[in-house]
Amino acid sequence: MDYSLAVTDVADEDIRKAIVAPLVAYNESQAGPSQGRPLVVVVRDSANAAIGGLWGSTAYGWLFTQLLVVPTELRGQGVGTQIIRLAEAEAAARGCHGAWLDTFEFQARAFYERIGYVCFGELPNYPEGFSRFFMKKELSALTPVGRHALADVRP
Fold it and tell me: Which residues pair with 135 in a beta bridge?
């Protein structure tokens, strides 16, 4: 088989799909279907504009939080906890037994520890002078929230 290698900084979605398709096929042949689904919790302002929230997914029985943003003016009011709790409840309703995420040393490790996450890995000097922490939480003890409650939660 002839082939060539190329390096690029262009994030072409078609190339990503070509790379991921055989990986997904192999993973599913080994572990079964992932049942992967996006999971998003949106924080909206009074004009209904998205101003923060959680961006993640569920797969193989785990919730993965890729992004969590609490607007500066809402921090310290329990909004982050509400967002995480909604995501965890939905994940539990989907059959997830655990949650995982990563956070930088200068971000929210203490917040996640307060709500039950534990550190299971550290990548030092990412970025230089800081660490990136990988955290997880068991969800089996959670009681799923009804789907109607997830649609529109207000403080």
Answer: 101, 119
